[in-house]
């Protein structure tokens, strides 16, 4: 979360998804980056923000705490690329679906998105709500001999 007009937050996305929330009326902006849609096992994990269902809720809670008005919120979503050649893995698509479902349930319109595909993304989220995006074809490291 930030209100500083000079701040830029950057993240690298493969199958992960980032949700950017904007309350331009109050100049409050926030971003998350989650790896999995939801925790599917009972093992304890202290990093709740790793799961989309929690990461989006935590972002919303924090923005409201900082003075954002839920009626002013707009969203931008990025990521969910099928970058790993893992057969039968739909994590990227499940991450995208979850983000869209939660934002719809919360009545937060998605005003921009760049999701899916078979490439990664580097995004730069700037105060003021602008997002700059760079597509990355080969996100997985190559093994050198």
Automatic annotation (TrEMBL):
Main enzyme class = hydrolase
| CDD domains the record matches | CheD (cd16352)
UniProt-listed Enzyme Commission number(s): 3.5.1.44
Gene Ontology biological process terms in this record: chemotaxis
Q: Which keywords, in A-to-Z order, does the entry hold? A: Chemotaxis, Hydrolase
What SUPFAM superfamilies is this protein classified in? CNF1/YfiH-like putative cysteine hydrolases (SSF64438)
Q: Which Pfam families match?
A: CheD
Question: What is the name attached to this protein's record?
Answer: Probable chemoreceptor glutamine deamidase CheD
Its lineage reads: Bacteria, Bacillati, Bacillota, Clostridia, Halanaerobiales
């Amino acid at each position: 979360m930030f209100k500083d007009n000079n701040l830029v937050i950057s993240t690298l996305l493969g199958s992960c998804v980032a949700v950017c929330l904007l309350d331009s009326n109050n100049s409050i902006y926030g971003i998350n980056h989650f790896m999995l849609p939801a925790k599917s096992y009972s093992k304890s994990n202290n990093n709740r923000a790793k799961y989309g269902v929690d990461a989006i809720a935590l972002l919303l809670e924090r923005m409201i705490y900082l003075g954002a008005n839920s009626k002013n919120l707009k969203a931008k979503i990025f990521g969910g690329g099928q970058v790993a050649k893992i057969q039968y893995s739909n994590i990227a698509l499940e991450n995208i679906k979850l983000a869209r479902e939660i934002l719809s349930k919360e009545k937060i319109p998605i005003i921009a998105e760049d999701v899916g595909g078979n490439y990664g993304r580097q995004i730069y989220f700037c105060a003021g709500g602008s997002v700059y995006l760079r597509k990355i074809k080969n996100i997985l490291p190559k093994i050198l001999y």
